[in-house]
Amino acid sequence: MAALSTDVLVIGGGATGAGVAWDAALRGYDVVLADRFDLAEGTSGRFHGLLHSGGRYAVKDPHAAEECIHENRILRHIAADCIEDIGGFFVTTPFDDPEYADRFAQGCRNTGVDCEEIDPAQALREEPRLNPGISRVFRVPDGNIDVWKTVWALARGAQERGARILPYHAVVGVHRNGDVVTGARVRGHATGEEFDIAARVTVNASGAWAGQVAEMAGIEGVRVLPGRGIMIAMNHRLVNTCINRCQMPTDGDIIVPMRTVCIIGTTDEHTEDPDDHHVPPAEVDQMLDDGEKLVPGFREARAMRVWTGVRPLFEDAKASDTQTRDVTRAHALLDHAERDGVQGFVTITGGKLTTFRLMAEDTMTAVSRHLGDERPCITKTEPLPGSEDRATYMLGERLQRKEKHLADEQLICECELVPRWKLEQAIERRATTNLDDIRRLLRLAMGPCQGGFCIYRAAGILHGLDGLSAEQADESLLDFLRERWKGTWPILYGDQLRQARLDDWIFQGILDVEHLPAGQPEAVAT
Amino acid sequence: MRGALNYDAVVIGAGTAGLVAGTRLAEGGARVCVVAKGIGSTHLAPATIDVLGYAPDRVASPSGVMPEFISRHPDHPYAALGVDAVAEAARWIQSRVESGPLAGYRYFGDLDRNYLLPTAVGALRPSALVPETMAAGDSADLERVCVVGTRTLRDFHAALCAANLSKLGIQARSVEADIEVDKADQNSLGLARRFDDPAWRAAFAGRLALKLQADERVGLPAVLGIRDPHGAWSDLEHRLGRRVFEIPTLPPSVPGMRLYEILRASLRAAGGRLVLGAEVVSSERDGSRVTSVATHSAGHDTRYAAPWFVLAAGGFNSGAIELDSHWVTHDRVLGLPLRGLPAEGEPRFIGDYLAEQPMSRVGVAVDAELRAEGAENVLVAGAALPGAVPWREGSGEGIALASGSRAAEFVLARAGAPAGAAA
Amino acid sequence: MTTSSGTTPIDDLLRGSIDHCVKCTICETQCPVSNVTPLFPGPKYAGPQAERYRVADEASVEWSVDYCSGCGICSQSCPQGVKIAEVNAQARNKLKKQKGYPLRDRIITRPTWLGRAGTPVAPLANLTIDFKPIRILGEKLLGVHRDAAAPEFAGHRFSSWFKKHPSPPTGRKIVYFHGCGTEYYEPWEGQKVVQILEHNGFEVVVPKQDCCGLPLQSSGLFDDARKVVLRLARALVPYVRDDPNTLIVGNATSCTLMLKREAREILSLEGDPDLKLVSERTYDICELLLELHDRGELKTDFQPVNERIFYHAPCQQQGHFIGKPALDLFALIPGLQVTEGNARCCGIAGTYGLKVEKYDIAQAVGADLFGQVRGSGATEVACDSETCRWQITHATGHRSVHPIDYLHRAYGL
Q: Which of A225, A373, A487, C46 gives A305 a disulfide partner, CB atoms 3.0 to 4.6 angstroms apart?
């Protein structure tokens, strides 16, 4: 592929990077975004989906709390379709310090986080699965945000304004001409082909990998402390409101209803490697115990999938490596011209998903300076594609849609109500053979059967639509199964084990996928 | 008034193993009741009689390989059962199929040679006995095949199937058949009903024939009739003028449902009773014997007392054996000791999806006669047994048939005069 | 544990049970409705699958769950113990509450009103039931299909007969819950039940009683259903509270199922101690007689009954999860030849098949059964539920009676 040339090169396609691309495109800049894998495959796609009200930080980090509530309101206005207005409770359980509740309420007042104390009996009426021993409850405007929907809406919005979005293009080198960063070299995952992207400004939005990318530009000392945490998705919504423990932020203190599941999280262990995705068994047990505290009977409910996310915690000064929770949560914008004397390069890292728009805005402010061309930011008001009607997402949407087309839309993923036409459209638009990419786009195979029924169907459709070889289709299928297993086996007990056994029967027993023919060229019958 | 209903034997579980045990007990003159939480594995499995497919390499002849397999796996159910028992059970099921409610329907094959049948994704799967409706798919003499799919059935993808078969030296291609249905979410059962209708079949065959080439067999998804598979399949062969075979695919398994109907009819004909929706929730014991089980029923539990019980309630798949969130495994039905659990501290599962998992062979601990170690009057059959990985070995039905038969045989030999001839 | 909202662990039991669903499709293969019409997408879809999309305080977005007939075969067949039909029933309740209840659903769900109104004027009332123009009018005004099987009023009430024929005191009391069907439409069935019980040494007690609320529940009028069933529970419980050996027996198998299980599960009444006690003591008449027999306590002085009959176990009898005790009772009667049907459902599903928009579906559902009946060569059809009997007679022309009729005949009572 020939070299590309652009105004702004964004490295990293998480919420921040996509937000920068969107902001830049709205300002009329030419943008190229590159991510080594699928968009939002890094930290953004691996968290629990909480749209912070800020209550969590009201005592611990008031500045962060203010940022959160401010951005919360903005996002509800511009990304309404990606957000579900579930509301949140902060609850004092028998395991929490009752003193904290008043500090919490005061903290919310101080930071502008809407907070209303309600009678625990009322909370239990709304959420009957909650621990009946809760003594105090505060209602806050938490929401959930569908990250993949958001990131792809940002990307699409940028594309509609001319941006080029390049998932599966890893940066293999950052070009530096003296003290000026002039762009980067990328390698395409599908073909292995490498090409250069020349940019007037390069934005390092690679989150937990920001240090590695900065090093490629010859910049030392961008120290990002990866904090790994696990999250477990439970098969159905045990609660429909976000439930927070009313205490200082700690492990396992939140359950977030997200689409058809609810997610408990999380832990916080320092790791050296931002690609460290192993799930420690002790953390799984801890999450289940923490779940019991909020929802008695949690351990009898069905755990469906576990995954890890790595938080990008930035520290400028020396800090302890083992406990990352106390490192500042506000984001860090590093203008390397000021910091290191290197022009044309900025790093944005840290932060939390709720403030991605603000992070992008700050980034573009610095980028504009580099470009010598101040253009106004309009992301506070411009709706993302799909959110023009400003209506927040309702959980029943997919069901409502299917009910309207009951007899004429064929469901491929029944658990998540994904119709065939939508799958075919996604395959055509993304031009990918990776069923996990499709999964992230559509929630394919993200329900209780975890692809037991839909993955063979999807592989067959993929094979037909894309004119894939049998090998490619088989590889897609097997890759999916291997990838899925990683998120299954550490929490495999109870009902999900029953499911896994049925899925084994389907794939290994009925389909016999492990004995698919390998390597031989196709003998095409005429 | 908390009495129990008395039987000569109570079978727990209505999958293949349970229905075989119940039927053979009833045929032997015992008063039998089969209690089950619900319908079992029959509706999900392809309904080929898989005896031994992989050991771990592909097996051409189960009877030839079994002795060596048994010596390598002394804890496997086949070690307790032996080849002859499996062969006898296979012959028994063949005869019940032939004398059953589906006129003309039969199974072909024996333990000496595995068929190699295409799967819905185009791999080849070894099976010892197969329904007549599948036999023409045997890759041993499959040179040219046209795999027929339809957009109507999302559970079968002919092009992918044919593409993979092509890599095995079979000249395989695919066509799409036009089938009109009244709803987009059609499953195999809905199509199978249409194939039961001769007029519909005639129209279908007429349209399909136009797309076929000379000398190619026709492979369809397993939808060739639920009430009259013999009629549907032979009619299609006749109309299309060539060999036709069906390919098992995602559940619901129509061939499996046929097998269920056959077993159900055999049980009924022999006077056995079946109670569905009856999950065993407790049991009573007298020393080392189980004296009765209580099943969940509306309002108050129902108790079933018998001198003999057959535990055929499945393994992890049915929840009969459960690994809970504290990582403790137990038999939820009778609380019997288990075997095959990884040692303390050893991993239960490993990250390689296609490797054999450490928890694969867990089952209810049994002695050499397949009696539960925890209860001398409980026989264990089917997926509840330890020592096997049926979905990888291709041994599910072989184990179910033989162990269900063994349980019945054991009980009948010791039952003395049965309490009363079955009504 | 009851929370302040009155929701109880049973709600968790229903919604929690969806965690057991492994999407195996077995329920779909058994559903008699989804297999004949595309209007109902099937139990897996409507139950555990759609439930993940339902939020208690958000409006219902569905319509198709209204086509679930509530037969419960899905729950019986599910190998994982998912409470599918029960989840569907609750979803339907929410939907109906939102949409509003048609006048029809307020009337046909109250057999007591209809019974009390129709009994004194039975001959006239029965004429209107058979008079086509009135039926057509009824269809247009109320939505009750003109051809739907409607029973005839008996003209006298079972309870009136019993008042004049109290049981001889034997000290061995048993409470008889007769249900609206027996009371207003088939009082002779009640007479037979009483005579059989008396023959076996019971002293039958018939408390003042009313409807069990099942028709209200299955049409989604939960608040009214709760009132009605709790009133019945309060009426029955004094008779069983003090003596642990006193049982309640009924011949209306859907009504006994309502008391035993459905009211507790579907109406979220698990916390009511009266209902709980009543449900534990309630027996279906065949269930009771078989248990007696198994203990050697049933009189078996049966004379031959030389009939060829067909037995259909209604869905709501299968929903007791006790198998088919009627079959074992038939086996005790010399000369009686029984063909056991294996059709799933007759289609009426209580009041479902009466409704104009569901009538055709109900007839399609029952077609398999009707065909089996006709092909069996049997002269009569035994069936435990009155609404099913009326449906079967209406469709096949065969006489249909409760299984205990044959015992009654064999006893020579």
A: A487
pLDDT at C220: 84
Residue-range domain boundaries for chain A:
79-143+225-310, 397-515
Interface test with C, best of A236, A443, A450, A455 (most C CBs within 10 A): A236
- Residue A321 has which token pair? 């490596």
Confirm or reject CATH 2.50.20 for domain C299-411, answering yes or no.
no
β-pairing, B144-149 vs B171-176, is parallel
Class of the CATH domain delimited by B4-98+258-414: alpha beta
Res. A437: pLDDT tops 70: yes
In this structure, are residues B70 and B78 in contact, taking their beta carbons and an 8 Å threshold?
yes
Q: State how far the Cα of A14 lies from the Cα of A10, in Å rounded to an integer.
A: 10
In this structure, the strands spanning A261-265 and A224-234 are: antiparallel
Q: Give B 347-376 residues with CB within 8 A of chain A.
A: 348-354, 357
The CA distance from A396 to the nearest CA of chain B, in Å, is 20
**From the list C77, C247, C282, which residue is nearest B276 (CB)?**
C77
B382 sits in the region (left: phi over 0; alpha: psi -120 to 50; else beta) called left
CB of C135 closer than 8 Å to CB of C129 = yes
Q: Which residues contact C394 (CB under 8 A, 6 or more apart)?
A: C149
* Burial degree of C152 (CB within 10 A; 0-12, 13-18, 19+): middle
- Find, among B11, B13, B14, B12, the residue nearest to B31 by Cα: B11
Amino acid at C356: V
> Which single residue is written with the structure tokens 């259909």?
C312
Q: B378-389 burial, b for 16+ CB within 10 Å, e for fewer?
A: bbbbbbbbbbbb
Torsion of CA B343, B347, B350, B356, to 10 degrees: 0
DSSP C357-403: TTHHHHHHHHHHHHHHHHHHT-SEEEES-HHHHHHHHHHH--EEE-T
Does the ipTM exceed 0.85?
yes
In the complex, which subunits touch B with 3 or more CB pairs below 8 angstroms? A, C
- pLDDT of B240 > 60? The answer is yes
The pairs formed by B324-327 with CB atoms below 8 angstroms and a separation of 24 or more are B324/A299, B324/A493, B324/A494, B325/A288, B325/A299, B325/A300, B325/A303, B325/A493, B325/A494, B326/A299, B327/A493
The residues spanned by each domain of chain C are: 9-99, 299-411
- Write the pLDDT tens digit of every residue in C339-354: 999 999 999 998 899 9
Distance CA C6, CA C12 (A): 12
Are A512 and B390 in contact (CB < 8 Å)? no
Q: Please, are residues C75 and C82 in contact by the beta-carbon 8 Å criterion? A: yes
Q: What percent of chain B has pLDDT over 90?
A: 94
| B316-345 CB burial, b ≥16 within 10 A, e <16 | bbbbbbbbebeeebebebbebebbbbeeee
Q: What are the tens digits of pLDDT across the range C210-220?
A: 999 998 998 88
Please name the fold of domain B111-250.
Rossmann fold (3.40.50)
Interface of A with B in 481-500 (CB under 8 A): 481-482, 484-486, 489-490, 492-495, 497-498
Cα C89 from Cα C106, distance rounded (Å): 17
Q: Does any CB of chain B come closer than 8 Å to the CB of residue A516?
A: yes
Q: Which of A388-402, A431-445, B62-76 has the lowest mean pLDDT?
A: A431-445
3-class secondary-structure state, position C163: helix
The CATH H-level superfamily of A79-143+225-310 is D-Amino Acid Oxidase, subunit A, domain 2 (3.30.9.10)
Residues 6 or more apart whose CB falls under 8 angstroms from that of A473 comprise A433, A459, A460, A462, A463, B160, B163
Query: In terms of residues, how long is chain C?
Result: 413
What angle in degrees, to the nearest 10, is found between the helix axes of A147-160 and A15-26? 30
pLDDT digits (tens, 9 = 90+) for A303-339: 999 999 999 988 764 333 334 454 444 788 999 998 8
